[in-house]
Structures are given as C-alpha cells and as structure tokens.
Amino acid sequence: MKNLIRYDLRRILKDKLVIIVTICMVALEIGVSGIFIAAFRYSAGNAIMQSKDLIFFVYSSFNYGITFMEIMLLIILSKEYTQGTIRNKIVAGYSKSEIYFSNLLTTVICCFSIFLFAFIINFVFCVSLNGFGEVNNIGTYLLKHFSQMIYILFLIVLVHFLSSTFKSIGAPLGIMIGLCIGLPNILLMLSPLSQINETAYYILMIFPQHHNVMSSLGPIMGFASFIETQQYLYYILIELGYIALMIFGGVTKYRKSDFK
Predict the structure, then answer these.
(1) Please, what's the b/e burial string for 143-176 (b: 16 or more CB within 10 A of its CB; e: otherwise)?
(2) CA nearest neighbour of 112 among 161, 76, 71, 149
(3) Where are the domains of the chain?
(4) C-alpha angle 12/16/19, rounded to 5°?
(5) I need a labelling partner for 63 at 20 to 30 A (CA). Which of 71, 157, 186, 225 fits?
(6) What does the alpha-carbon distance between residue 32 and residue 59 come to, in Å, rounded to a whole number?
(7) At what angle do helices 64-82 and 96-130 cross, to 10 degrees?
(8) Helix H or strand E segment including 161
(9) pLDDT of residue 225
(10) 7-42 pLDDT, tens per residue?
(11) What is the CA radius of gyration of the chain?
C-alpha cells in the first residue's frame, strides 16, 4: 500500500497541471487580496476589513483557485481510466480497495498541499501590508477555518467520487459546475430566509454549499450574527456525513467495476 501511495504521488506531482494550478491559486488569492486592500484604503482612508477576515473571505468566497484545482483533479484522475493505469495496478497484485484508497489519499494530500501553499503565501502578503487584526474569540476563529477545511475536503472527495463513478471528465465536470457555481447562487438568494425562520436555516444546512455561502458572504450581507459555534459544528458533522457516504458508495462501486 505504501509503495502504491508513493507511486500515485509521483504520478500526480509529475503532471504539469499541478504547477499551473498552484501558480493560478497563488496569483488569484494575492491578486484579489491586493485589490481589496487597495480599494479599502483609497475609498475609506484605511483598511476596513482586517487581514484575519480578508484571508478567510478570499479563499472561501473567491475560490476560483479551488475550482481550477477541481478541474485539474478531474483531468488527472480521468487519465487513469484512459491510459490503463488501474488495470496495470491490478495485474501488479493490488486490490481494487487498495487502489481506490491510495488514489483518494494521494489526491487529498496533493490538493491540500497546493491549497496550504497558496494560503500561506497570501497570509504573509496580507499581514505584511495590512497587519492581522484582533481575534476576540480564538476558539471560534479557528473553528471557522477548520470548518472551511472540511468543506474543501468535501469538494475533493466529491470530485474523486464523481470521477470514479463516471470514469470520464464530461459528466463530472458538468455536475461540479452545477454544484459549485449554480447551487451556491441559489442558496445565496435563499439565505435571507435564515434571518426570518430558524427552521429554514437548518433545512438549507443539508446543502454543504450553504456553509460556504454563509461563512464567507455572511459577514458582508449581515448574517454574521447568526453563525455561531453550534452552526459551524453542524456544518462539520453534515459534511463529514456526506464524505463518509461518498467514500463508502465509491469504494463499493469500485470493487464491482470491470477495468479493461
């Protein structure tokens, strides 16, 4: 299993798409952060959004870099089915479950490495220009970031699940566009219901994308007061539930698949 994981990591890291996506993520995060810092300073005389909030806002709201990462994942994962890589692994004596989990683990490691690299560079950039700001409740602040990490993990597992289910790039790409661009816009329009009816809020919570909408755009649209520690914990539990279901469903279908 360790040899398989090392092989999959080398295979992914050798792909030039990884370098392209990493550069795009860094450039987008720094670019958007720089635009916001400059706009706040020239319009208000000083920065009205502290770096501690801006950093979170940029990587959660303006997640085009994460979208690029998802597309990169789909392209790299689809190559396994078109180039006969999986069949070669089976011939080498690895079980389908080992292949599935090795593939999943390496994609998670690779994607989080890219994300954290871009995050750290943007963090240094924002803090050096704008300071960090005060954190009133460090526990809630860290929980907010941790919950967003779980959401990103949900997206990575979702891409892997769709790729292993359809074994192509077309259908998964269309579904991901709908789930990551179309659905959040619908949930954003429905989000004011959260302020009117608490039941509506908990109904919308079954969609993980609602987490991203509320936690990133909530402070700007006046929803911040409604997002408390309890809500972040609910989001985490819901997303972990989806992750577990996708992994179970994915590996079950994978075992029954015939690779030629």
Answers:
(1) bbbebbebbbbbbbbbbbbbbbbbbebeebbeeb
(2) 149
(3) 2-256
(4) 90
(5) 225
(6) 10
(7) 160
(8) helix 138-166
(9) 45
(10) 888 888 888 888 888 888 888 888 888 887 777 777
(11) 20
